[in-house]
Amino acid sequence: MATPPAHGQASLSDMLMYRLYQAWSQSNPVFVRLCEGRYGITRREWRLLACAVEGGIMTSAELAAAAKLDLARTSRTLGTLCEKGWLRRLHDSADRRVVRVEATERGQERYLALLPEVARLNDMLVQDLSATEVEQLRGFLAHIEQRGRRMAEDNIVSDKASRRAGGTRRAR
Length: 172
Description:
- The protein is mainly alpha-helical.
- It has one domain: Arc Repressor Mutant, subunit A.
- Strands 1-3-2 form a three-stranded antiparallel beta sheet.
- Strand 2 and strand 3 form a beta hairpin.
- The mean pLDDT is 89.
């Protein structure tokens, strides 16, 4: 049996990032069922499609940055979205190495069909909050995102993550 934290010491349930994760994980299945079950699109595909529609023509790297994904995941997901006919790659006539991406008409239609449903679910998530509380929450989240970005840029934890090495196995 685990020992409870010492007096004054934080427990996992007190940690804000854990609570944010819990809020996300409780609502995520609803969004997955909507996206995958009703519209045949994964959450990652939806995020890239939405960024492509909203951002217009951009490079893969720009799209990855807009979606907050790494280039490898973006490239794989772009391939799937192109196969589905929702995005297309455009080669630069002056430099064939430069590839831009844009949403097709079918991709824009999928986006326009799904967006109101996603917005409705987002509204339902915060329906117990007042309009002022929702705006405060948006502001708080913006501050947390900015601080997280600065922490990453400052490299405050310099250890390299290695899921292949099995994080906990390394500590044994």
